[in-house]
Design a protein that fits this description.
The protein has about 725 residues and is of the alpha+beta class.
Length: about 725
C-alpha cells in the first residue's frame, strides 16, 4: 500500500488531482479526506502515522459518534464493520477512497429508520408505570445489543421511560404521544437531511479527534460560522455550542453575553428544544448543530426560550426552561474588572482586600495600532494601580471559568507579579523547546496574593497559575485541579495549504494541535492541570468537566526544569490549608456542595431509573424537600458585614468609589401570569453542580484564605506602587 500512496502524492504534486474536482465550489470528499489525513500525519504534535492502529480507533470512534448511546447498531453490525474496515480505513483515506464513511452511514440511517418506526408503534401501547423494571440512563459504556431482539427490549424501556417522564411533567398540556412522535419525526428528518458534506464532516472530525480532542475538522459552513464568531460584536445569547450525543451542548458562555448575565445556562448543559418568543418548542434532539444555532440566533431584543437538560442532571429527562433576550454582546463586558472589599476585624479595624476578575486572556491582534491596542496586561495594570492607591493589603486573581486566550498576555500578566524570568515552556512536534520569558524586572504588585481557579480555568489561565505557583509568588486556591488543557492549536484552511483543492475555503479547515505546554518546573499542564495549594469543595469539581473527561487526550509528561529564582517570602501553604479545612468543615454551604456531589456520583454509578411512577415521584419529592430545607436555613443567615466597591476600566480613574450592587433576582410571575414551562423536580433557584445561588461560599473562603495569608505575612501593610509597571 505504501507504494500506491507514494504514487498518488506524486500525481498530486504535478496537478493530476485537480482533474478530480467536481466543480468550482465543490471539492470531492475524497480529496478533502486525503488532505486532512496527510496534514494530521505531518503536522500534528504527536507525528503519529495514519496506520492500522489509528484505523481501528477511528472506526470505533466513528461508530460511537453516530450511535453514541449504543441504541441503533447491533453487535452483528459492528462485527461486520470491523471485518471490512478495521485495518483499511487508513489506506482508504490516504488513497482517496471516501466510500467507507458513507457506507457505514447508510447502515446507520437504515437502523434509525427501523427504530423510529418501532418507537412510534410502542408509543401507542398502554403503560401502567407500576413495573419493578428499570431503564439504563447512559448506555455509552454498555455493550452493543447482541441482536435485534435485545435491541427491541432496550427500545421498549426507552419509550416507556419517555412516556413516564411526560406523566411526571407539571405543565404539559399536549398529548404525550403526539409530543414524542414529533420528536421521532424530527430525528428521522435530521437523518434524511444529512448531506454529503455533513457526513464527510462528521467522519473527518472524528478522524482529527482520534489524534487528540482539540484537533477538529471544520466544514465550509462551520468555517464561515467561526469567522462570524470572531467579530468584535455579536447579536445572540452569547453561547458557544458543540454537537455531542445528539444534543447541542453548551461549551462556553461568552462573558458579558445575555446567557452569562442571566446566570442560569451553564457549561455542559444540553439544549433539547428551542422556541421563539411564546411559540411552541421545536425539539432539537438529534437536530443538526447549524440548524440549532440558527434557531437560537436572532434579532436584538427578541426572546428565545431554551429547553435545557442541566449538566448535573442525574435524570436526563428532567428539563429546565430558560428564557433569554437576545442582545448585542459587547466586548467591554469581557474586560478585566475589580472590587475593593472592606472586611471588619475583631479589633474594630478594617482590612481592605482587592479582587480582580479576569474572564479571558484577551489581546488586540491588530499590531498596527499597538500603542492603543487592547491588552489584558494593560487593563489589569490600570486596575492594580487603583487598588494599590486605595491601600489594599492583599489581592485575589479570580480565574474561575477563564478558558484562556493569548499566550503572550499570559506571559506578560505573570510579569506584573515577578521579577524577570521564564514563565512557560512549549515543545513542538520535533521536540524543540521554546521558553517564553518576562524580560521586565519591575514588579507591579508585591503584596500577599491568591489565584482562584476551578475546573473551567484552562490554557492561558493554567500557564499563569502554574508560573506563580512554581515561583512561590501566590497561593493557588480552588478545585482539585484546573481543566488540564496544555496544548496549542492552529487553524489551517485546507484550500490554502493544499493548492490542488483550489485555494479557497470550500474545503473547510483543520484546527490542528501543534505544541504542548510545560511548566518551568518541568511538569506539563496537560491532563493534570494545576493542583491547588488549598482545595475548596466546589460545584464545578466534577469528573465530567476537564481534559480527563474527553476522548483520547494527549498524556501528561515532563521535561527538564529550567533555572528560575523563587520568591523570597514564605507562603505558609500548609497552615493556610489547615485553617481552611477547619472553616470548611463548619460551613453549611460546603456541606451542601459535598452532599450534592456524593448524590450525583451515586446516581451516575447506579446509572438506572425506575420505570415505576410512584418511585420516581418519591425520589423527586425527596429532592424538593432537601432543597426547601436548605432555602429555609439560608433565609435565617445574617448578611455579611463586608463592604464592596466596583472598579471597571470606565470608572477606574474616577475619584469616588462606586458601591457594589448585588444583582437582583427576577421577580416571580404574578398569579394571573403564566409560569414558565418546567418539569417536576426542577428548582430554578438552585443548580448544585453549577452554582451556589444565595451564598458564594467559595468567594468567601478565598477571602478568608487571603486574610490569613496577610496576617501570617506579619500583618497588613499598604502595598506601594512600583514605578513603570
Amino acid at each position: 500500500m505504501n507504494s500506491k500512496r507514494s504514487l498518488f502524492w506524486l500525481l498530486a504534486a504535478i496537478g493530476v488531482c485537480s482533474l478530480l474536482r467536481l466543480g468550482a465550489n465543490e471539492p470531492d470528499p475524497s480529496q478533502v479526506q486525503i488532505s486532512v489525513g496527510r496534514l494530521l500525519e505531518q503536522g500534528h504534535y504527536s507525528r503519529r502515522k495514519l496506520d492500522d492502529n489509528v484505523s481501528r480507533l477511528l472506526l470505533t470512534n466513528y461508530l460511537e459518534a453516530l450511535d453514541y448511546n449504543h441504541l441503533f447498531f447491533t453487535q452483528k453490525d459492528v462485527d461486520g464493520f470491523k471485518k471490512k474496515y478495521e485495518t483499511s480505513l487508513d489506506d482508504d483515506i490516504l488513497l482517496g477512497a471516501a466510500a467507507p464513511a458513507f457506507a457505514i452511514f447508510e447502515v446507520y440511517k437504515k437502523r434509525v429508520e427501523e427504530r423510529v418506526t418501532q418507537a412510534k408503534d410502542l408509543l401507542k401501547e398502554k403503560y401502567e408505570f407500576t413495573t419493578e423494571r428499570t431503564v439504563e440512563i447512559n448506555r455509552q459504556k454498555a455493550a452493543w445489543p447482541k441482536d435485534a431482539a435485545e435491541g427491541d427490549q432496550i427500545w421498549r424501556d426507552r419509550v416507556e421511560n419517555e412516556l413516564l417522564q411526560e406523566a411526571l411533567g407539571k405543565t404539559t398540556t399536549k398529548d404525550p404521544v403526539e409530543r414524542l412522535t414529533k420528536r421521532y419525526d424530527q430525528l428521522q428528518r435530521t437523518i434524511r437531511e444529512q448531506t454529503k458534506e455533513d457526513i464527510n464532516k462528521t467522519f473527518l472530525s472524528v478522524l482529527a479527534q482520534t489524534y487528540d480532542p482539540h484537533s477538529e475538522y471544520l466544514s465550509r459552513s462551520e468555517l464561515e460560522n467561526f469567522s462570524i464568531n470572531m467579530r468584535l460584536s455579536l447579536v445572540g445569547i452569547g453561547a458557544v455550542l458543540n454537537s455531542e450525543e445528539g444534543y447541542a451542548k453548551i461549551m462556553e458562555l461568552v462573558p458579558g453575553g445575555p446567557a452569562a448575565k442571566d446566570n442560569r445556562l451553564k457549561v455542559g448543559d444540553r439544549v433539547a428544544g428551542v422556541a421563539q418568543g411564546d411559540k411552541d418548542f421545536v425539539d432539537t434532539v438529534d437536530m443538526k448543530l447549524d440548524k440549532v444555532v440558527e434557531m437560537i440566533r436572532g434579532k436584538k431584543d427578541t426572546i428565545v426560550r431554551l429547553q435545557v437538560i442541566p449538566v448535573n442532571a442525574t435524570d436526563p429527562t428532567i428539563k429546565s426552561v430558560i428564557e433569554i433576550k437576545r442582545d448585542e454582546i459587547k466586548l467591554k463586558e469581557q474586560e478585566a474588572k475589580a472590587e475593593i472589599v472592606d472586611r471588619p476585624l475583631p479589633d474594630g479595624t478594617t482590612q481592605r482586600l482587592g479582587w480582580i476578575t479576569l474572564p479571558s486572556f484577551y489581546a488586540d491582534m491588530d499590531k498596527s495600532s499597538a500603542s492603543g491596542a487592547k491588552s489584558t496586561t494593560k487593563d489589569v495594570l490600570a486596575l492594580l494601580n487603583r487598588l494599590k492607591q486605595e491601600g489594599i493589603t492583599g489581592l485575589v486573581m479570580d480565574l474561575r471559568r477563564d478558558g484562556g486566550g493569548s499566550l503572550e498576555e499570559a506571559v506578560n500578566l505573570t510579569g506584573l507579579f515577578i521579577k524577570r524570568g521564564p514563565v512557560v515552556q512549549a515543545k513542538d512536534s520535533n521536540g524543540n523547546l521554546h521558553v517564553s520569558r518576562d524580560r521586565d524586572s519591575t514588579i507591579a504588585y508585591d503584596g500577599p496574593m491568591l489565584v482562584l481557579t476551578n475546573r473551567l480555568s484552562a490554557s492561558a489561565s493554567e500557564i499563569f497559575a502554574a508560573a506563580l505557583q512554581d515561583y512561590g509568588r501566590a497561593v493557588v486556591v480552588g478545585d482539585s485541579s484546573t481543566f488540564g488543557k496544555g496544548t496549542v492549536q492552529t487553524m489551517l484552511e485546507i484550500g490554502r495549504v493544499m493548492p490542488f483543492l483550489g485555494g479557497g475555503n470550500e474545503a473547510g479547515a483543520l484546527k490542528l494541535t501543534i505544541q504542548k505546554f510545560y511548566r518551568i518546573a518541568g511538569g506539563s499542564t496537560q491532563l493534570k492541570g494545576v493542583v491547588p495549594d488549598v482545595k475548596v469543595p466546589s460545584p464545578t469539581d466534577h469528573p465530567e468537566i476537564g481534559e480527563g473527561a474527553m476522548k483520547g487526550p494527549l498524556p501528561y509528561d515532563t521535561v527538564e526544569p529550567i533555572p528560575y529564582d523563587k520568591w523570597d517570602r514564605p507562603l505558609y501553604r500548609d497552615e493556610l490549608a489547615r485553617r481552611s479545612a477547619t472553616r470548611i468543615a463548619a460551613e453549611a454551604e460546603f456541606r451542601y456542595i459535598m452532599e450534592d456531589a456524593e448524590l450525583v456520583t451515586k446516581r451516575l454509578a447506579e446509572n438506572r431509573l425506575p420505570l415505576n411512577l410512584a418511585k420516581r415521584k418519591a425520589e423527586l419529592d425527596a429532592d424538593k424537600a432537601r432543597k426547601a430545607q436548605r432555602s429555609e436555613a439560608r433565609a435565617k443567615l445574617k448578611p455579611g458585614d463586608d463592604k464592596r466597591y466596583t472598579l471597571t476600566l470606565d470608572n477606574v480613574a474616577k475619584p469616588e468609589l462606586e458601591p457594589f450592587v448585588e444583582k437582583k433576582k427576577e421577580p416571580e410571575p404574578k398569579a394571573s401570569e403564566p409560569k414558565p414551562e418546567t418539569s417536576e423536580g426542577e428548582d430554578p433557584e438552585e443548580d448544585p453542580i453549577s452554582k451556589a445561588p444565595l451564598v458564594d461560599a467559595i468567594r468567601g473562603e478565598a477571602l478568608n484564605v487571603l486574610a490569613d495569608l496577610v496576617s501570617l505575612s506579619r500583618g497588613p501593610k499598604t502595598a506601594q506602587a512600583a514605578p513603570g509597571k
